[in-house]
Amino acid sequence: MEWIAIPLIIVLLVVVGGVAWAVGAYNGFVKQRNLIQESWRQVDVELNRRYELIPNLVETVRAFAGHERNTLEGIVRLRQQAQQLSSAERGDAPTAERAAVEEQLTQQVRGLMVQVEAYPELKSNQNFLELQRQLAETEDRIAAGRRYYNANVRNYNTRIESVPTNFIASSFNFQKATYFEVNDAEVRRAPDVSFGEISYRGDAPEQPRSAAPVESSSPNELPNPQAGRESAPGLSFDQRPEAQPVDRPEGEGYQPPNYNRP
Which keywords does this chain's UniProt record carry (predicted)? Predict the structure, then answer.
């Protein structure tokens, strides 16, 4: 009977090990999902802080720059829409609609800050300067919280799509989380640096440069850090200007210097 008991023990160990792995995978999904919700609540707090600052900002700008009425109305409309979506979510992870509205609101507020540069009286107003400072700090905290949230979403979604944890995800209906991204090309644009131009700039006036447009890639395509280098502005190391010969006096009596003379 011993030869029968050994296979049964092996089967039992395999079953117990499989159940233990499934329980661990399920608990891991629950932990990651709760971490996503917690990290999103931190972002949501800063977003609500921005909701509180926007009305005062709008009224201050309106008092000095009434011509920006369309921009101000757009900001107020997006703020109300974002607040409604926030109330519907009740602290849960954001939907794609919420992320899109928040992105539009960010772009509108950033555009307003650029437009007010044309109003010197507004730029010197102490109330506006304080609102601008608080809004900048809030945007910085939103950006930091967004990076932390997206990192948790990436880890969670990777487990959902990976084998064998995808079987647990599909069996217990764990859905992929939504990223909170910024798709504005101005935000994603990286600064252009040309070492040749830095080395040989001299006293020549700096010419304006236009950054190359950001190209979208497929979800499964890895980023190529070398892409776009051929079209980068500036001189490369192989294109540096050759040294010009030094003009030397010619005529009778000219002798080249002898450095070996005592």
Answer: Membrane, Transmembrane, Transmembrane helix
Write the CB contacts of 106 (distance below 8 Å, at least 6 apart in sequence): 139, 182, 184
Span 2-187: which CATH code?
A: 1.20.1440.20
Q: How many C-beta neighbours within 10 Å does residue 184 have?
A: 14
Q: How far apart are CA 70 and CA 78, in angstroms?
A: 12
Which pairs count as long-range contacts for 136-141, CB under 8 Å and 24+ apart, including other chains? 138/46, 138/49, 138/50, 138/53, 139/50, 139/106, 141/46
Q: What is the DSSP letter of 118?
A: G
State the average pLDDT for the chain: 76
Quick one: tokens of 144? Answer: 């930091």
Using only C-alpha atoms, the chain has a radius of gyration, in whole angstroms, of 31
Would you say 181 and 99 are in contact if contact means Cβ atoms under 8 Å apart?
Answer: yes
pLDDT digits (tens, 9 = 90+) for 122-178: 888 999 999 999 999 999 999 999 999 999 999 999 999 999 999 999 999 999 998
Q: Nearest CA to 47 among 17, 13, 83, 15? A: 83
pLDDT tens-digit map of 245-260: 444 444 444 454 454 5
Q: Which two tokens stand for residue 256?
A: 């080249």
Cα(216)–Cα(184) distance, integer angstroms? 12
CA dist 154 → 82, 143, 150, 158 (Å): 24, 16, 6, 6
